[in-house]
Amino acid sequence: MEVLFTFVPRENQQERLLAEFPEVNFRFLYKNKSFLPTADIVVTYGEDLTAEDIESAENLKWIMVASAGIEKMPHDAIEDKGIIVSNVKGIHKTPMAESVLAHLLALKRALPFIYRNQRNGEWNRKTKSSELAGSTAVLLGPGAIGSEIGRLLQAFGVRTIGCNRSGKKAPHMDDMVSFEKVLDVLPEADIVISVLPSTAETYHLLKKEHFRAMKEDTIFMNFGRGDLVEDQVMLEALKTGEIGHAVLDVFEEEPLPADHPYWKMDNVIISPHVSSHSGKYVERALDVFIPNLHAWIKGDTSPSNPVDMKRGY
């Protein structure tokens, strides 16, 4: 059996795989797909496979995506060949939840103001600090990541309202609504956080009327995918003061162009799609992959976290 990694794990992580699976021929090659024609399994971040690659992969049966997002993959080509796809849904919840809380606490406790004054050598106690406690947060996409964010927010005394396709209950949400009902709860929100994936249903889901429904001091945070909001809609909401602040980890165009207005806006924090980064990322991905590979070798071709290529998640 051949397993091709299109990224290179650390040496100790490679040794872990080699020791646990002596019967498997592993290839650890950074963006080198020369072994695709003979690979049975491919482990990838999901951004480096093309339809031509899938066509050349004669033996490929399973693609393990070491990421949650699959929007850049050649869906039709993969589906046509009946290749099984799974991802590592859930491993991002700790670093992403911590990133969200870090940004929120920084804004509420006026850390940017404090740091700026330190650089300028200015003793200024007019911080205009506020608190998380007693606020209300609307979380778009209360899955593994959103629920962990909700758990931490509740610990700070924040009321959480989850929003998903069905409106069905989710962990660590005080209330739930469906996408169709989100306009009803946005006027209550002090914080709006999205961790939604990119799908046909979530594409430009938030429109002008959604931002008009928010409070003037609402903090909007997008940690899911940039195509949730059309860029001009986001800009208009920020420029006209329909919302107070935006923390953006994802954008419609990445990297964000150097001449984009966001760079010079005081009410925007730009995070260059790094909220899930962690030194433990690949380690956690292998914790998902290794049990699935053991099961695969024994004939179980149903890995955990299967992805429906038609739905996009």
Automatic annotation (TrEMBL):
Xref: InterPro entries: D-isomer_2_OHA_DH_cat_dom (IPR006139), D-isomer_DH_CS (IPR029753), D-isomer_DH_NAD-bd (IPR006140), NAD(P)-bd_dom_sf (IPR036291)
Transmembrane segment boundaries: none
UniProt domain D-isomer specific 2-hydroxyacid dehydrogenase catalytic: residue ranges: 31-304
Domain D-isomer specific 2-hydroxyacid dehydrogenase NAD-binding: 101-275
An MF annotation (GO) of this entry: oxidoreductase activity, acting on the CH-OH group of donors, NAD or NADP as acceptor
Keywords from the named record: NAD, Oxidoreductase
Pfam families: 2-Hacid_dh, 2-Hacid_dh_C
Keyword NADP attached: no
Similarity remark: Belongs to the D-isomer specific 2-hydroxyacid dehydrogenase family.
Annotated PANTHER family: 2-HACID_DH_C DOMAIN-CONTAINING PROTEIN, D-ISOMER SPECIFIC 2-HYDROXYACID DEHYDROGENASE NAD-BINDING DOMAIN-CONTAINING PROTEIN
Protein name as catalogued: D-2-hydroxyacid dehydrogenase
Organism listed in the record: Planococcus plakortidis
